[in-house]
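Chain A, query sequence.
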Amino acid sequence: MSEPAHEKLSYAHGIGDTELLGDTIGRNLDRAVAAHGDRVGIWAVNCPEWVLVQYATARIGAVMVTINPAYRAHEVEFVLNQAGISLLVASLSHRTSDYRALVDQVRADCPDLRAVHYIGDPSWDELTAAAPAVTRRSWSTSASARRGRRSRQPRR
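Chain A, predicted structure.
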């Protein structure tokens, strides 16, 4: 996903789905490489998946480190090493930047980085694999997939 969906979502839009999918991603992060106290980097523009990563890291007690989407290879390398990021969740691209190529360029020089998952890629699907299909569909990056969905009321 290279550009945000430009669809406004409210907190009540899908809080139940957010909790369910966030919990699933949190469990899968925990199984992958991130645990309580680990640094999980997110290198993406604003998108629904960003919220899910934030929720998931909070659920497992990991620290989410945001990375500026405009960063180039040397800046990403600095942040990955300075923060000690063990897992990176990134968009595939943004504007003229191919995030996968940039990560590949610096990965050998980032000893703490154990795994990378890309939003919109099969590696992202690994994180959401155990969630019910309807929940994964409702949080897809396609705005048309979410259009017409009823808002849910927050739990009391």
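Confidence is low (pLDDT under 50) at residues 133-156. The longest strand covers residues 85-90.
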